[in-house]
From TrEMBL:
Protein name, UniProt field: N-succinylarginine dihydrolase
Pathway: Amino-acid degradation; L-arginine degradation via AST pathway; L-glutamate and succinate from L-arginine: step 2/5
Species name: Chromohalobacter canadensis
Keyword entries, A-Z: Arginine metabolism, Hydrolase
Lineage: Bacteria, Pseudomonadati, Pseudomonadota, Gammaproteobacteria, Oceanospirillales
Chain's gene name: astB
Complex and partners: Homodimer.
Amino acid sequence: MSEEVREVNFDGLVGPTHNYAGLAHGNVASMRHGGLTANPREAALQGLDKMKSLMEAGYAQGVLPPQQRPDLGALRDLGFTGDDASVLARAAQEAPQLLRAVCSASSMWTANAATVTPSADASDGRVHFTAANLQSSFHRYLEPRTTARVLAAMFHDPAHFAHHPVLPATPAFSDEGAANHTRLCAGSGDNGHGEPGVHLFVYGRQAFGGQHGPTRYPARQTLEASQAIARQHGLSDAQTVFAQQNPDAIDAGVFHNDVIAVGNGPVLLYHDMAFRDEEATLEALRARMSTPLIPVRVPSEAVSLEDAVSTYLFNSQLLSNPDGSMTLVVPGECQENETVWRTIQDLLLAGYNPISEVLVKDVKQSMRNGGGPACLRLRVALSSAERQALGGRVLLDEALHGDLTAWVERHYRDRLAPEDLADPQLAQESLTALDELTQLLGIGAVYPFQLGGG
């Protein structure tokens, strides 16, 4: 395949209302830090720092804008009336959890934004997108319509990009996007992303079946949703593997597959509790891949599920280098945990797999809300022609990084407590910032307030 194909990591910009509301049931870090005071400015700058460092290391880096928050239109749909200040005040008094939900900055975790199939795998030679319905939690259910508009604005050329309808927002088709999807391919250096791939879809439960599922926390992805997306994107049985996540892992706080496994090229780095049937999953991948699978298995004896969840070892980015080696980008919490750090040194750098370097990044503001480096990015393999067809100014370079940093410093607060969410001035600050951002990125009107909505 073409040597011009590169994987672009589109990181989500952290929104101005970043706060710790503890909204995500089953996300241990989110629940543990609920009610703390957040620093939106620091969170956004930490994300931009990660993007910049990877760009400077030679990786292709893009950006995705945040959602419009607070979502006053959602509050009005739920019966809160009056001007903006009245809606916010009444929601704060009568339904504070709803107010927290409509202020959530959870769209920063763009691994949940959509599922993507690159043109190398599509029969029509286009890149395919399905925005995730995120129906399992109210604060994320609010995202898909804006996400779909943003993706359509950025990937707008129908000659290169295809956009599919969001799946029905019902429990049977619960879809959490690329956080439960891994594409494996030949991966000979960065150019390997242009080779045909195999798509591993991991689900937590089967809606129309009797498989055993988790009992403590909800399974957010269904088999039926994963199968529907594969059909939308035209993927054949020979290109897909559907594997059930280990229910015990979900009950331990592994709410998405990307909290327990990460793949890149032919490498699958995973915990031994990642899949309900580990051997069957590996055998199915081996049968479909055109190049040998390189499984990197971390046993429970080396890293417990508790440590895997608290450090987000597997919610790391695994990136291809031109020489065929790979770099693992881990959160600082991995380095602070002696057992996990020793495992990274002893197991991952042992020489029997392509992982040769580990980069440590500080994303504490995101980690406290339950998202590590892998949560913060949506992976999209693009040819040079597809990159040139992108709408707007969304591929990071020094100038864009500087403009975005200055934008954050102009508009973001350095302290945001839950009680601040009712401040009408915060809502106005957010709209002003987002209006300026769409102009800075050149993506046009994508937010409800820009389109005549609330």
